[in-house]
Specification:
about 575 residues; alpha+beta; Formiminotransferase-cyclodeaminase, Chain B, domain 1; Alpha-Beta Plaits; Four Helix Bundle (Hemerythrin (Met), subunit A); 3 domains; four-stranded antiparallel sheet; 18 helices; about 55% helix; globular
Length: about 575
């Protein structure tokens, strides 16, 4: 699975589209990065850009954009309604998929150091990337704005984390930049059956972390602390900002929420709490709206949450989980919800697939025809992975049928866990269907390298060996997953719906066939390797897995035979 991070740089130019286009074009020049959104604001004289991709590519695109902005934007002439202190004012990195905050902080520090060293721009690290507590808050880093930057740089307490600590002629033009790492923010609106902004605000104040000002029960005036500041009564949801407003286009009031950390308050919790507080105030939630894009995991977790409330199995396809999420949240009330335009991973997948032939996206007939064609790939490795995927799919089917079996309602969670495990194996094996073909193509590409000089021959030999090692590791991973997946079929043969016990048996046969088929590929590829320290252990391990798989298949089939 790809590691994905998002980057949302803010540039201090919102009127000159020629400048904005030059900045976004350098972002688009980086392979592996998808430009999701460009949002210029005239009054703020500021443009917010959203891009996503693998971490190294995103950091490269961000650096190029910061460099281009430094060339094109003169902060000494900048005016705008939004606080700012640099040509690229802020540049946060956000973990999206298979990336942790700790990893993202490392990338933020590397990017910040490169900007400071190579572009001679003062850099302050903020949020999770802050190097000291007082710099965690962006507003603190940016205090004084551009006009106060010269004085700020002369203050030892505000020496930049990277880059110059003096107001050079370069800094006079570029200003400073805040580079950070923060959690993914989801802009989320909940629709109410009212036109009253005041009532929508009441629900918003119930929910938002900041809450509302406490008042004297008699005078109704705000209560103040010893500093004369209003005392707030916190709301129900952490990491949530919210306000009520009226949307003239749809003729309804909404709760407009920013979920600033979906690991603390995810979509489904925000929605359920909104429903509770709306009902308590005589209102009803009729649906909701996602503004911008959302990570796939957020939608999958939402689907699982509502299925668990129904005591139903969560081990179903991503497509079905997303459908449950959309219907449960009412995301299609105002307009259709299109996953390939709203879910980050699907946007990238769609972009990556342009001009490429993905095996797992083919229908059954097309895949069979492609396999039987004159092309040597897809071959046995891809078929082995596919057999494994089909085998564990049958195990998942038995688990789901068991979870729904009449009289077994009290066991729904037990079988849901097995179905979810089966789905995880299925997803990973399906990816290996394409990966095995890619591994074969890498070998073919390396054989096509020039071999005219001794240097070229050495490079070609090294490339062939590296590609062959990779082509050995892929089917070995297929073997491991096929074998491990057989625990699902064994469990379903033992405890699953007895009416489907033969399906568990067929699943075991398919999974063992996947192990055996992948073993042949491991053996033939490893046989061509010069590095025996790599090839000998992997062949030995593969042989052991094959024997264990054969033994486990026999055990499962004995259980199946005893029940039919």
């Amino acid at each position: 699975m790809k590691k994905l991070i998002e980057c949302v740089p803010n540039f201090s130019e919102g009127n000159d589209m020629a400048i904005i286009r030059q900045i976004t074009s350098v972002i688009e020049s980086v392979e592996g990065v998808k430009l999701l959104d460009v949002d210029p604001g005239k009054a703020t004289n500021r443009t917010v850009v959203t891009m996503v991709g693998e971490p190294d590519a995103v950091c490269e695109a961000a650096f190029r954009a910061v460099k281009k902005a430094a060339e094109l934007i003169d902060m000494s002439k900048h005016k705008g309604a939004h606080p700012r202190f640099g040509a690229t004012d802020v540049c946060p990195l956000i973990p999206v998929s298979n990336s942790t905050m700790e990893e993202t902080v490392v990338y933020a520090h590397k990017l910040a150091e490169r900007i400071g060293n190579e572009l001679n721009i003062p850099v302050y690290c903020y949020e999770s990337a802050a190097k000291e507590p007082k710099r965690k808050n962006l507003a603190s880093c940016r205090s004084g704005e551009y006009e106060g930057l010269k004085e700020k740089l002369s203050n030892s307490d505000w020496k930049p984390d990277f880059g110059p600590a003096t107001f050079t002629s370069t800094v006079q033009k570029t200003g400073a930049i805040a580079v950070g790492a923060r959690n993914f923010l989801i802009a989320y609106n909940v629709n109410l059956n009212t036109t009253s902004t005041r009532r929508a605000n009441s629900v918003a104040f119930d929910l938002r972390e900041r809450g509302r000002a406490k008042t004297d029960p008699v005078t109704k005036k705000p209560l103040l602390n010893e500093k004369g500041e209003p005392i707030n009564e916190p709301g129900l949801l952490k990491s949530v900002k919210a306000i009520g407003w009226f949307i003239e286009e749809f003729g309804i009031a909404q709760l407009s929420m920013n979920l600033t950390d979906i690991s603390v308050t995810p979509l489904h919790i925000a929605f359920d709490k909104a429903c509770e507080r709306a009902q308590a105030r005589g209102l009803r939630v009729t649906g909701s709206e996602l503004v911008g894009v959302v990570p796939l995991e957020a939608m999958l977790e939402t689907g699982k949450y509502f299925l668990r409330k129904q005591q139903r199995s969560v081990g179903i396809s991503d497509k079905e989980l997303i459908k449950i999420a959309v219907k449960s949240l009412g995301l299609d009330e105002l307009y259709p919800f299109e996953p390939d335009k709203k879910i980050i991973e699907y946007i990238l997948e769609k972009e990556d697939s342009k001009g490429k032939k993905s095996l797992i996206m083919m229908d059954l007939a097309a895949f069979a025809n492609e396999t039987s064609s004159e092309s040597p790939a897809p071959g046995g490795g891809s078929i082995a992975a596919y057999m494994g995927a089909l085998g564990v799919s049958l195990g998942g089917m038995v688990a789901n049928l068991s979870a729904h079996k009449s009289g077994w309602d009290h066991r729904w969670e037990e079988f849901s866990n097995w179905a979810e495990k089966a789905k995880q194996f299925q997803t990973r094996l399906l990816k290996l269907v394409d990966e095995d073909t890619q591994a074969f193509n890498k070998i073919m590409d390396s054989f096509g390298l020039p071999k005219n000089s001794e240097q070229e021959k050495a490079f070609r030999t090294k490339a062939i060996q590296e590609a062959t090692e990779f082509a050995t590791q892929v089917p070995f991973k297929t073997m491991q997953l096929c074998f491990e997946s057989m625990e699902v079929m064994k469990a379903m043969a033992e405890i699953g719906n007895p009416n489907s016990v033969t399906d568990a048996g067929v699943g075991a046969i398919a999974a063992r066939a996947g192990v055996h088929g992948a073993y042949l590929n491991v053996k033939v590829n490893a046989g061509g390797l010069h590095n025996k320290e790599f090839s000998t252990p992997i062949i030995n391990d593969a042989t052991e897995i094959l024997q264990k798989a054969k033994q486990l298949e026999e055990e499962i089939l004995k259980i199946v035979e005893s029940k039919i």
